């Protein structure tokens, strides 16, 4: 695939398919470099066409965004928080995030802690 700016939905679809194909490429290789460039182009296109103001998301919406769009999984979150049930309780708004949880997520997923340190409502028991 020749790398060029993403201008159309078809360009975007082709670039995303190529990113998925190259996903496990080793950094520093030709394929790894190609992956870095394509990922940057895809991110630029997505930001321009589907902007999300992450600063307006509450912490749970942010976690869901990171899982859905950020390349993370609920299983990864469970590992960070100590159990699958704890991750589920957090994502279902039945348990509040603690400072320690926020620190672990921030460090592991490279997300600014201030995006996770906001008040949000829990569901009643």
Question: What would you note in describing this structure?
Answer:
Helix content is 57%, strand content 0%. The model has no long low-confidence stretch (mean pLDDT 91). Helix 1 packs antiparallel against helix 2 and helix 4 (74-81) packs across helix 5. The protein folds into 2 domains: 9-49, no CATH class; 54-115, 434 Repressor (Amino-terminal Domain). The chain has 125 residues and is mainly alpha-helical. It has 6 helices and no strands. It is elongated, with a radius of gyration of 17 Å. The longest helix has 20 residues, at 30-49. This is Helix-turn-helix domain-containing protein.
Short account of what is shown:
This protein has helices at 9-22, 30-49, 59-68, 74-81, 84-91, 99-109.
How does the SSE layout of this entry go?
Elements: H1 9-22, H2 30-49, H3 59-68, H4 74-81, H5 84-91, H6 99-109
How many H/I helices?
6
- Record field, number of beta strands: 0
Q: What is the N-to-C succession of helices and strands?
A: HHHHHH
Q: Based on the structure, what is the oligomeric state of the protein chains?
A: single chain
Which value, in Å, is the CA radius of gyration?
A: 17 Å
CATH architecture of the largest domain: Orthogonal Bundle
Please bin the fraction of helical residues.
55-70%
What would CATH call the homologous superfamily of the largest domain? Answer: lambda repressor-like DNA-binding domains
The rough form would be described as elongated
Uncertain segments: none
CATH T-level fold name of the largest domain: 434 Repressor (Amino-terminal Domain)
Major beta-sheet overview: none
